[in-house]
């Protein structure tokens, strides 16, 4: 089990308890590559160079800056950046509650597991979690992560809480700019009924292996083959589509009939 990377306090009004955060997702099993010098076999490293002098810049001389005009920068020190951080650095203060599923998925960014940091705080944590779960609400708060204040959503799950970082308003584009041109006409009920049958035939219970990454699986197989010094299998050429389209016109009803017949046969 990975160690918590953040520890602080969960606060609701006068109720406070020590909590800890751990990433809910991991990429540790993904295949990662290194860049090598093909001639020497040595690793290639990244370095920062001055754009004018072309000399390497040591870490101690690197600073962050904001470009107010072309070639004119405002330099910000680490102390100045730290001073901007709010009090939410170590406290998750729940100040609002929202009905469950009120926030659309596009606003969700990254999930973390939130749990009590010690036995002393378990009771207070459980009270907050049970009250949220029983009231069918999510908690809205703010938290500083990676030197940036984030809006976060607390979602009850099992006996713990999932903390989701949320995107800010200027990070999500207006959906109407993309969906406004879609025809508002109501589709034929017969076609909707047929597609629902296809959906029912394809409906399964959730399990994590449904989302298996085929590229990672193929990479691991190829690397395993190379370890044994045996040639990796060549990638199969994609076969031709079993369904041919006549011109640019697609017969939706015929496609639905074929889909239902195939699902029924399967």
The low-confidence runs, each spanning 5 or more residues with pLDDT under 50, are 238-249
- CATH architecture descriptor of the domain at 6-28 and 84-171: Beta Barrel
CATH topology label of the domain at 6-28 and 84-171: Ku70, Chain: A, Domain 2
As a percent range, the share of helical residues equals 25-40%
Whole-number radius of gyration?
Answer: 27 Å
Strand-residue fraction? 25-35%
CATH class of the domain at 6-28 and 84-171 equals Mainly Beta
The number of helical elements comes to 6
Concise summary:
The chain has six helices and ten strands. It is an alpha+beta fold and 266 residues long.
Topology:
Layout: E1 6-12, E2 15-23, E3 64-69, E4 72-76, H1 78-84, E5 91-93, E6 96-99, E7 108-116, H2 122-135, E8 137-145, E9 148-157, E10 160-166, H3 176-179, H4 189-202, H5 214-227, H6 252-265
Parallel strand pairs: 1-5
Antiparallel strand pairs: 1-2, 2-7, 3-4, 6-8, 7-10, 8-9, 9-10
Write up this protein.
- The protein has a domain at 6-28 and 84-171: Ku70, Chain: A, Domain 2 (Beta Barrel), CATH 2.40.290.
- The protein starts with 5 loop residues before the first strand and ends with a helix.
- It has helices at 78-84, 122-135, 176-179, 189-202, 214-227, 252-265, and strands at residues 6-12, 15-23, 64-69, 72-76, 91-93, 96-99, 108-116, 137-145, 148-157, 160-166.
- It contains 6 helices and 10 strands.
- An 8-stranded mixed beta sheet has the order 5-1-2-7-10-9-8-6, covered by helices on one side. A two-stranded antiparallel ribbon has the order 3-4.
- The model is unreliable at 238-249 (pLDDT under 50).
- It is extended.
- It is of the alpha+beta class.
